[in-house]
Design a protein that fits this description.
Length: 79
């Protein structure tokens, strides 16, 4: 089970955010991060294989989105 977000889920999130008020800020909460990490994490199940697909879809919305995530099981500060 490689972590990924289905195309249907991405489309549903985009549709929901497009229907929201332009003056609101969307807050998404998820388990995995969307951005590549400075230090590669080669352990299984650490990174979404298609995080860039959701990241790209969110950036094309033309509105602010706050994406909160967890999952890194180490010191969260990279020096």
């Amino acid at each position: 089970d490689t972590p990924a977000i289905s195309e249907d889920s991405i489309a549903a999130v985009v549709k929901a955010l497009q229907g929201g008020s332009g003056s609101s800020i969307a807050v998404l909460v998820a388990h995995h991060n969307l951005l590549p990490q400075r230090r590669p994490r080669l352990a299984p199940y650490t990174e979404l294989v298609n995080g860039g697909a959701l990241r790209g879809a969110l950036s094309e919305l033309g509105r602010p989105v706050i994406y909160l995530h967890g999952h890194i099981h180490e010191d969260p500060v990279e020096i």
